[in-house]
Structure formats: structure tokens, C-alpha cells
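User: Can you model how coenzyme A sits in this protein?
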Amino acid sequence: MFETLKGDIRAAKERDPAARSTLEILLCYSGLHAITAHRMNHWLWQRGERLMARFGSQVAKWLTGIEIHPGATIGDGFFIDHGAGTVIGETAEIGDNCTLFHGVTLGGTGKESGKRHPTLEDDVTVGAHAQILGSITIGKGSVVGAAAVVVDAVPEYCTVVGSKAFVVRQKGQRVYDFRHDRRMRAEDPNMECVRSRLDRLEDQMRGLDAHQPALLDAPVALDVEVEEQPARATDDEALVERWIVRKYR
Ligand SMILES: CC(C)(COP(=O)(O)OP(=O)(O)OC[C@H]1O[C@@H](n2cnc3c(N)ncnc32)[C@H](O)[C@@H]1OP(=O)(O)O)[C@@H](O)C(=O)NCCC(=O)NCCS
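Assistant: Here's the modeled complex, given as C-alpha cells:
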């Protein structure tokens, strides 16, 4: 227990540039108070003292603003920065060396029973007010951007942002370009398809009777079929591809 506490203090020291001393962390970090209370409540929960554990969790919530269900499993070196408004559900599982900011929800979608909260693998960081919902896994080393809403599994070493969130970086490599002009120029088969249909329509319209020039200005309805994407080598690549294709659509 003491070793675990030391690990949690070390995590705060390493991950918060504002942390100056162990005493300051012990006195001023509500994230540390919440995880320490949780480790005791979880111990009670595992021994069948469910009511005491739930009550202890509520007391910790009143004092820190952080609600952690005593059934949640949390690894070593856990750090909640600021913390207020953070909620961690009963069947959430959090690996070692994870960081959460304030306002984070590791919650259920309301549609599942049994294991219904997220699993964070080791070294995951979740930005302020991100909402991770359902029994999904956030892969090792991934980062969830502030205010993201995540309802699909995230592969290892990815950064996800947005509502609903999608992959922008995998294993250090950027895999999505936000900028519209770059996207138009990129070799995107869907955009290429739209462009060639447009060229053909314009050519046909130019060939029409010269007495109907107004047709060139008429709105054109495009019926573009998106081709099936080729199979990917690994599950991770397929998952990233699925996110990207959905975004383009
Ligand atoms: C996502 C994050 C980790 C940055 O990751 P990164 O891999 O360095 O990504 P980049 O900064 O290169 O950003 C990539 C793109 O995502 C966008 N982006 C970054 N964070 C975003 C967010 N939270 N929501 C939406 N878009 C975001 C950037 O604008 C950029 O878009 P662009 O290519 O059009 O410029 C960071 O922005 C973040 O949200 N951190 C959470 C920190 C936090 O909660 N702090 C609270 C302190 S109290």
C-alpha cells in the first residue's frame, strides 16, 4: 500500500510541471486524495464490504469532486490532474501509469450490462472533459484529446480527437489531414471519383445546344458510389482505416 502511494506521488511529480514537493502533492492534490481513498474502498469492495466501500467512495467524492466506483480496477502510477468532475465507472479497468484530467468520464453507454465501462491499457492519457463510453479498449500509449467523445476502440499509440473522435496519429505518424485544401489535393479515390464525374458532366453540358447556356449554372446532383476499401494486413490497420473512411464519408 505504501509503495503504491509512493508510486502515485511520483506520478504527480513527473507528470505535473507545477508540482514542487512531496508535501505539496500530499496536501494539495485532490487526484492523489481520490486515488488513495479509492485504493482503500476497492480493498473493502473485494472483501465483500460493498456498502462501506460505496459510502467511502461517496465521502471521497464530496471531498474531492472525483467519483470513482469502488469496483473499478486501477493500476500503479495513476495520476488525476485537477480532477473535479471526473467519473470512473464500476467495471472500468485502468492499466499502469495512466493520466486523467478533470471532467473525464469512463462511463457506460447505457446499452450494455456486465462489463460496460472502458479499459485503458498502460500509459494512456485522457485529456480534460473527454468522454469514453462503453466496454471499449484504449490501446497502450494512446492519448485521448481534450473534449473528445470516444465510443470505438482505439489502437495502441494513437492520438484521437474530436466528437466523435477519430485517429490523427498512430505510432508517431500522422494518419489524417484536417485541412480541406490538402485533402482535396491528396490522392483520395473518393475525391478523384467526384472530380472525374464533375469534369464529364461539364464536358457534356458544354456540348449542349448553345441556346441553353443557363444549364451550365444549374445545380448538378451527384450520385457517388464509395468503393469498398481493400482488406488490411493487421487488425490495427483495419481499425484505423475504418475510422478514416467513415470520416471521409
Ligand atoms: C490531442 C493532443 C494530445 C495533441 O496531440 P498531438 O499528437 O500533439 O496532435 P497535434 O497537436 O499535432 O494536433 C493534431 C491536430 O488535432 C487538432 N487537435 C489537437 N487537440 C485537439 C482537441 N482536443 N480537439 C480537437 N482537435 C484537436 C489540432 O488542431 C491539429 O489539427 P491541425 O492539423 O488542423 O492543426 C492535445 O491537443 C490535447 O487535447 N491534450 C489534452 C491536454 C489537456 O486536457 N489538458 C488539460 C490541462 S488543464
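A couple of observations from the model: The pocket of coenzyme A is lined by residues 82, 101, 127-128, 143, 145-147, 159, 161-162, 168-169, 178-179 (CB under 6 Å). Helices lie at 2-15, 22-28, 30-46, 50-64, 180-185, 189-206, 235-248.
User: Helpful, thanks.
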